[in-house]
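Suppose a colleague, Dr. K., hands you the sequence of a protein chain of 222 amino acids and asks what its three-dimensional shape might be. Before reaching for any lab equipment, you can write down a predicted structure in token form. Begin with the sequence itself:
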Amino acid sequence: MKKIVLLFACLLALTSVAEAQKGKLVTLKDCYIYAQSGRNSKAKGSALSLSTGMTYSMANVIDQASPKQIDIMLYFGKFGKAKEKSFNLFAPNNPSIGEIIWEKDGGTSPFCKFEGPSKDPYGYMWLKNWTVRNATKLQLVTDVDFDKATFESVNALQVEDNYNVANVKVGDIILFQTAETSSSPSKKGLIKITAIEDDETKAEEAGNGQYQRLILTIKIQK
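The predicted structure, expressed as tokens, is then:
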């Protein structure tokens, strides 16, 4: 009888812990992601996991992590019909555009820009060859109080079938939902762009977008 009571108490305790963990919104501060431009692999990291806030280069995604962990990437250049270069956050995959063309010239931008390291640009580290490319939903929002966001308020937001945000600026707030294939699947959250910084190791390139990084604060459901 005592064993049954003890087992029931343990189950009740575990249930209480599980309930306490529901509805949690985790904040990750001072995350960063470097822009990639042209057809070179940004060694400092243009791929980011929204669940951990960790940033990876194309090579490190394969060698130190997994493509399942990468939810967003950053490209600096002309996107779509834009006449000026800008920062563009995008998902590793975009099912809404149909087939992605990976041709070196005239391919689908920005996907075709994300090769692997120069020693093996078309090898297994190239975005095209990732075993998983997450279709993370992304959209710019203007009517959200980022600082006061809660699990419930974020959960109530509807995320459109959109997979990139162009012309990203400081102060922008981006609503997201991770893909079912992500290492942290189907989680909603918010990204706030808090700063754009130069690469301190490239002083001669100050102000040049392809050598800059976005500083982010991420709020994500757990």
